[in-house]
Amino acid sequence: MRIERIAEADDPRLADYRDLTDVALRRVMEPAGGLYIAESAKVIARALRAGHRPRSVLVQEKWLDDVAALLGDHDAPVYVVESEIAGRLTGYTVHRGALASMHRPALPSATDVVAGARLVVVLEDIVDHTNVGAIFRAAAGLGADAVLVSPRCADPLYRRSVRVSMGTVFQVPWTRLPEWDEARGMLHDAGLSLAALALADDAVPLDEFRAQRPDGVALLLGAEGDGLSRAALAAADTVVTIPMAGGVDSLNVAAASAVALWELRRR
User: Fold this and answer.
1) Cα 119 to Cα 188: distance, rounded to the nearest angstrom
2) Where in the chain is the domain with CATH 3.30.1330.30?
3) Does the structure show a pLDDT above 80 at 87?
């Protein structure tokens, strides 16, 4: 581990942290596959436990010892800066003391991710990074085996998704799902019944679905407002709904995921 104290925000060593959007980080050609930013010692620790490699770490002096203990034998440079420099670099106040520029791992195949899984969450075109992070946290806490995200779904490694998930995006196996014409057969071949959480006249209440729960379930969740696409609903074996009261027709997708996962968890 190399500790390097930096006093200027325009120092070239800090390029990974300087006003770069997550899209820009993904397009960094060196290293291949791009980068993502992990924020806070807790999140960095979970990323390291998952086998992800840091390219560098940005830290304020008072958190240096904690970060040094996390990194162990990793040889990534640790850039120590004042809080004012960190804020100028990133465009926001770095409350949690540390950021790490991490190498993006290669994503596994969807077939490998769902092999042996009995409860899988499928996110279709959910573009709100807060919702994606919250769903991952629910998946980790309530026993889902894996998460699959559609080609147009928000990036689980976006900084806000990682932060909201409390780093559980590194804990739950996940990958990108192919389009539905291929995905449906792949999920069925893995022994999973597709349950679409949606509003529909013929939808089965969640508690009734739980009473006859298939051994393997892929829970399909769609974006706020639009919900699941016609292709997703057509691919589903069952449409499931959460019974509501008080004139409310549905929950936020992250809240709905937690309710459904609690009900469908393996007992």
Assistant:
1) 13
2) 2-103
3) no
